[in-house]
Amino acid sequence: MAKKVKITTEDLVSKGYFPEELPPVFSTVDLGKVVTKVLSHLGSHIHDKKVGKLLPYSIPKGRGYRRNLGIPNPLQYIQLAKTITDHWGDIIVHTEKSKISISRLTLGGLRAIRRFNFDEFIDARLHKSVGNRFLLKIDITRFYNSIYTHSIPWALHTKAVAKVEQKRTQHFGNGLDSDSRNLQDTQTIGIPTGPDTSRIISEIILVAIDIHLQKVLPNLQGVRIIDDYYLYFKQISDVETARSVVHQALREYELELNPNKESVIELPEILESNWYRELKEIRFSNDPGLQRKQLISFFDKAFYYSKNNPEEAVLSYALSKIRPTSFQRENTGILVALLLNAIIQEPKTISISCEILTSFFQRGYLIDQTLLDIALNEFIIFHCLHDHEFELSWGLWTIKNLRLNLSKEAAENVSRNTNAIIVLMVLDLKRSKMIPLGLDTSLWKSMLNADNLYSENWLFAYEVKVRGWLRTADDYLDKDPFFKKLKDNKVRFYYPENKMDTSRVKVIANSPSMIVHEEKNIKPIVSSTISAPIIVDPLPPTVPKPISEALKEIRESLRAKRKDSEIDDN
Fold first, then answer.
1. How far apart, in whole angstroms, are the C-alpha atoms of residue 8 and residue 87?
2. pLDDT of residue 522
3. How far apart are CA 308 and CA 311, in angstroms?
4. b/e map of 203-235 (b: 16 or more CB within 10 Å)?
């Protein structure tokens, strides 16, 4: 099959627009199908329209920190996507000049821009390290959030030229600059994290920095993956020189080094973390009793290492090993309890826990629905207090998949949330008669107006109105040429009928339950920095508890955590 070399606006819209972290009910496939019609409708006036604001969606990181994603307004996103596709050839000529980038703009796959190849990254690090004695690892501070949009034409056409010739008709880099600002209310600082367009723009800027490093450091040996640099040297003095050169190059583009993630490592580098080496070797017996003990021991180790390595996704990796592993039906209850404990310890695991729990439910496994109901509702109430969109959206999606009800207290809490992702999912539950009490939609009705079509509430203002889930007398969609075109072409961004793909979950043990960590859907996790061997006390033996007792402890833990949070807020 011939390699695809030209990106299309349809690809960027249908596969590269919404963040991949969203639940499966959100999609831009409809918009991708009609984007050609929309562009034809807008014609030469496409760049004369309003500016938009980003819909925020935050996801958890380590140590309580969060990564803030941004979902652009579709009008401004289409404008930017069109500029990129019109000049794709020039962009590729520029980005191919880097000799150290592993995050090249490769097309194909589930996204418009293919995600980097992990094996290639590890291989490159190993090969570049040969013959060298030191590794300089550096990272850019808040990279996406600190990109100066005017630096886009600097990277493509040089700063001297771009500062003099600033019209989009003179240089396409000026168009990328203008379109990027229009995504976020004309702000010049930052680009949204999440869309593939930002991957493209970030690579444009970083390749310009790479070119400078290659010129000033002609013998440069290294690898860059997005904004993480791994540079290799024979002498420690060369490390200091390189650090100074990188610092100066970043300053030229209004960027800064992250001192908290900078390190100098004496080679050879240890690639695998201690916790990863231990967890990946664990296997499970097919004997129900022994399997149960091994399962509890596995999670004990995962919980232990998660608490001691809060910046690394220990539990996410642990659940990625559980997912393709077959367990006996009689151990389903204790596995469910352990999964619910995992979402407390590492909330990001709610997405993979949803996948596993949904698979159990679809296949008729007996799960205590009442206690699951309590645990998940407590999870939602807790994250409502902090406006954690990722946890809330996946918690609500899990409740829908398991045919549970949103509790009165949870409904009262989500009624105060105005994020479109959350509101749409709650209204879907209401439509499905899964919210018997407590929901108040009066705040949301007040947001149904034309002004919100270009605010951070654009998705709510369009999708709720076009679906008629809340009603107002004002037919404001028909008064806006762009959104009327979407309405007339039956474009939807929320698909209530979409299902969770559970094909990767194994549920019945017909053969020895041995985890194979090389399985394609499990990516190994490596340490980003070298560290001395960790000396730990032996893990205490665990006495298996009845499932009802385990789930009761989960409920009490969630409530205690919520009370602590309320005290902190006060």
1. 11
2. 39
3. 9
4. bbbbbbbbbbbbeebeebbbbbbbbbbbbbbee
Cβ(434)–Cβ(407) under 8 Å?
Answer: no
Place of tokens 């380590």: 62
* Cβ-contact 313, 59 below 8 angstroms: no
**C-alpha span between 82 and 70 (Å, rounded):** 19
User: 63: alpha, beta or left, given left = phi > 0 and alpha = psi -120 to 50?
Assistant: left
What DSSP string describes 514-528? Answer: ---TT-TT----B-S
**pLDDT value for 366:** 78
> What is the reported pLDDT for 1?
35
- Mean pLDDT per 10-residue run, the chain (570 residues)? 71 97 97 94 67 96 88 97 96 97 92 89 93 96 96 96 90 96 96 97 98 95 96 96 96 94 93 92 93 96 95 94 92 94 95 95 86 94 97 98 97 98 98 97 96 97 97 93 95 96 75 36 36 32 48 58 49
For residue 549, what are the CA distances in angstroms to 354, 365, 544? 22, 19, 10
Q: How far apart, in whole angstroms, are the C-alpha atoms of residue 395 and residue 185?
A: 31
Which are the contacts of 164, defined by CB distance < 8 A and separation ≥ 6? none
Task: State the virtual CA torsion across 35, 39, 42, 46 in degrees, nearest 10.
Answer: 110
Written as six digits, the tokens of 305 are: 């290492």
Q: Is 145 exposed, middle or buried (0-12, 13-18, 19+ CB in 10 A)?
A: middle
Long-range CB contacts (within 8 A, 24+) of 106-110: 107/4, 107/5, 107/7, 107/11, 108/4, 110/15, 110/20
Tell me the sheet residues that pair with 222. Answer: 231
Closest to 274 in 3D by CA, of 519, 16, 526, 445: 526
pLDDT of residue 507: 64
Burial of 471 (0-12, 13-18, 19+ CB in 10 A): exposed
- Give the C-alpha distances (Å, rounded to integers) separating 92 from 99, 156, 275, 353: 14, 11, 40, 39
pTM: predicted TM-score of the whole model, two decimal places: 0.88
Tokens of 468: 């008629």
pLDDT for position 470: 96
Quick one: CA dihedral 455, 226, 81, 25, positive or negative?
A: negative
User: Cα separation of 419 and 366, whole Å?
Assistant: 35
Residue with tokens 């829908």: 400
